[in-house]
Specification:
It is built from one helix and 38 strands. By secondary structure, it is an all-beta fold. A hairpin with a 5-residue loop joins strand 10 and strand 11. The longest helix has 8 residues. It is globular.
Length: about 425
């Protein structure tokens, strides 16, 4: 974690401080190397990146982009090269920590996801913009040599993402043009998908961990799933405001005030009693279908309308897909991919801020900007309140790679939630 210009490294299980580093300016971005040996700290305002070694605290590295400026920084998959994107996206500079050599990649495009690495770390794809046309360059990460360079059939390419097996690269156009393109490693166009023509198009995509499915969330409040054999649509998943299917389980969050025994009241009240007097408890009830969900009609004359499916993620075992329709901001939809049917809907009291799957088992964690975290698994739902003084509003969360703990983040604080290791 970072506080202003200080970087604090803690033990994940005990939260004891292991190292404390002081940077030259306020830290705006931090990232671990893939082997957890180094930590990158980016200070975009000054155009500087500092790298710290966990094994050798006295070792240090400073990369100064000078007048070129800095807008983004990240590690390469080998954890020994740093990729810096300069201001105005003039170039990407690849710095080697081992040989101190420098490589340059020209004309990177400023888009949502313009750089993507394969899961095995062997290849990197970069979106480029030259002469008002979109291109994709594929590099070998071992020596940063150009493997393929090809143009794309897009108006304004918005993002790219590799399939987990590293064989297919998905590229999608701006929301004004519904187009998803699928390329092979050698730059061949395998398929092109367009669901409709004129309304707003693609909002988000997600690969299944097995690379068998590509889920596409669209502004028309639907998710379309493509298969990996023909790259054709196999189903459409709707997000209606009324859940009518009796096979769908709807968990509704309900809130109630704590009841306190009047005989225990004292003045002045103890801290624990005062906390219980003014706190509310939350739990899930199973609603009887049909259920009407809270639907918000988007404002048509404003930019970035809250409409369509903008969040979607597959579970680690490929069995479930979680989605959120921005028109129905308080609901998480969980689909059974084996049956291609809606399995569960979680209806929360507040807007969904973030959800993420356990990396080891089908268990979904959800936060809504309150002091509670919500967990769903095929066995059921549970609500966990973060203990502590004050209002800890959870804005985002992140699972540990082992699945036995979770990092909960508020605006100014963080806490770690440890889960039972044995399955219930």
């Amino acid at each position: 974690s970072c506080m202003q210009h200080r970087l604090v490294v803690r033990n994940a299980s005990s939260l004891q401080i292991l190292q404390l580093y002081t940077c030259l300016d306020q830290i705006q971005y931090i990232e671990w190397s893939s082997d957890s040996q180094f930590i990158l700290c980016a200070m975009y305002k000054r155009g500087i990146v500092q790298v710290w070694s966990l094994e050798q605290p006295d070792w240090h590295c400073k990369i100064d982009e000078g007048s070129a400026g800095l807008v983004a920084s990240c590690w390469s998959p080998d954890g020994r090269h740093i990729l810096n994107t300069t201001e105005f996206h003039l170039r990407i500079t690849v710095w080697s920590l081992c040989t101190k050599s420098v490589s340059y990649i020209k004309y990177p495009k400023a888009c949502q996801q313009g750089v993507a690495f394969t899961k095995d770390g062997r290849y990197m794809a970069v979106v480029e913009r030259r002469d008002c046309k979109d291109f994709i360059s594929i590099f070998v990460c071992r020596n940063w040599q150009l493997l393929r360079h090809f143009d794309t059939e897009t108006q304004d390419l918005f993002g790219i993402e590799w399939a987990p097996n590293g064989c297919v690269l998905a590229a999608w156009d701006t929301c004004l043009e519904y187009k998803v393109l699928l390329y092979s490693l050698d730059g061949r166009l395998l398929s092109s998908f367009r669901a409709y023509e004129w309304p707003l198009g693609v909002k988000a995509i997600a690969w299944s961990p097995s690379s068998q499915f590509l889920a596409i969330g669209s502004f028309d409040e639907k998710v379309r799933i493509l298969n990996h054999v023909t790259w054709k649509k196999i189903t459409e998943l709707d997000h209606p405001a009324i859940i009518a299917n009796k096979k769908t389980i709807v968990y509704k969050e309900v809130e109630k005030s704590s009841t306190v025994d009047t005989e225990r009241l004292s003045f002045p009240p103890t801290r624990a009693l005062a906390s219980s007097l003014f706190s509310t408890q939350s739990k899930y009830d199973i609603s009887q279908v049909p259920v009407s969900l809270q639907y918000i009609k988007p404002v048509a004359d404003r930019a970035n309308p809250k409409v369509g499916v903008g969040m979607l993620a597959f579970s680690a075992d490929n069995c479930f897909l979680a989605t959120k329709n921005d028109n129905i901001p308080n609901a998480v939809w969980i689909w059974d991919i084996r049956k291609l049917k809606l399995s569960v809907v979680l209806e929360q009291l507040c807007t969904i801020q973030c959800f993420q799957w356990d990396p080891c088992q089908p268990r979904l964690a959800v936060c809504t900007g309150t002091s509670r975290v919500y967990l769903w698994s095929p066995a059921g739902c549970v609500v966990v309140r973060v203990p502590g003084e004050g209002d800890f509003q959870i804005m985002s969360l992140s699972w540990h790679s082992s699945g036995d703990s979770m990092l909960l983040l508020s605006k100014d604080n963080f806490c770690v939630c440890y889960l039972e290791t044995e399955e219930v």
